C-alpha cells in the first residue's frame, strides 16, 4: 500500500468516526443512496430485525442486519421472535445494538391464536375441560421467561394477544377471565418494568380472536390498572377493524403504550395503500408521542432496490 492509499484510508476512517450517524458501519454498500438521507429518522421507526431487508443482508446474521438498518437511519428495531431465539443470539443482538446506541422495541411473549386460554382457562379448543391452576402456571412460566429475555435484551415491551374467544361463555365472563389473568401477569412484570402491550387484531384476518377493537383493549387496561398493561395500537389492524383512526387513537390515548403500522390493503410499507401515514405521524408528534412505531408488515418489493424503496417510503412520511 503506498502513502497516498494509506492517507485516503485514514481520512475515510476519520470521517466515519466524526459522522457515524451518516456513514456505513457495515460491509454493505448502499448503492447510489444519498448519504445525507442516512441521518436518523425523527420518528422511532422500528423495522423487524429478521424479516426486513433480506435481499441486502446476510441470512440469520443479526449483527449484519443491525448494521444495515442503522446505516439507513433507523435507531430502533423490534423482533417478534426474540423470546424464542437462542441465548447466544439474544446476547449478540443486545451487545451490538447497545454499541450502536439503538433501542429495541417489543418481542412477543404470548400469542396463541388457536386456544381460549385466557378467555376460558382451556388449553384446547376441542377439549372443553378447564384448568385454571394449570393455565396460571403456564402464564407464570411464560411471563417469567419474558422478564428474563427483557433483562437480557434491555428492552421494555412485549406483545400479548389474549387468546381465542369461547362461544360457550358469556362475553362478560370472558372479559373477567382475561382481566384476572392479565393482572396475574402484570404482577410478574411490574418489578422489572416490563410492559405487556395488548394487540387488538382485525377480525377479517383473525376471525376467532377475542380482542379486536382499541376501545375494548382500553377497557381491559383500565380494569387491570397496571403500568405493565397497555395497548399495542396497530394502525393496519384498526383500519381493517373500524377505521376513524385519529379519533380512535385520541379516545384510547391514555392507555396506548406502543404503535405498529402497515398500509391497507396489502399490509406493506407506508404509501402502498390508503392510509395517510404522513398525517398520522404528524398527529402523534403533535400529541408528544416519542415512543416506538413498529414496522410490522411486509415489503412491496423484496429486491435490493426494494429495500431502499422501503427506507425511502418512511423518509417521505417521517413527521
Layout of SSEs?
Blueprint: H1 3-18, E1 44-47, H2 62-71, E2 76-77, H3 87-100, E3 103-104, E4 106-110, H4 117-120, H5 132-153, E5 157-160, H6 171-189, E6 195-198, H7 214-224, E7 229-234, H8 235-241, H9 245-251, E8 256-260, H10 277-286, E9 292-295, H11 304-317
Parallel strand pairs: 1-9, 2-3, 4-5, 5-6, 6-7, 7-8, 8-9
Verbal overview:
- The protein has 319 residues and is α/β, with parallel strands linked by helices.
- It has one domain (40-317): TIM Barrel, CATH 3.20.20.150.
- Helix content is 42%, strand content 11%.
- A seven-stranded parallel β-sheet has the order 1-9-8-7-6-5-4.
- α2 runs parallel beside α3 (87-100).
- The radius of gyration is 21 Å and the shape is globular.
- Residues 1-37 have low confidence and may be disordered.
Quick structural overview:
The chain is built from eleven helices and nine strands.
Oligomer: single chain
Shape annotation: globular
Number of domains: 1
Low-confidence spans: 1-37
CATH topology: TIM Barrel
Percent of residues in helical segments? 40-55%
| Major β-sheet strand ordering | 1-9-8-7-6-5-4
User: Span from first to last CA?
Assistant: 47 Å
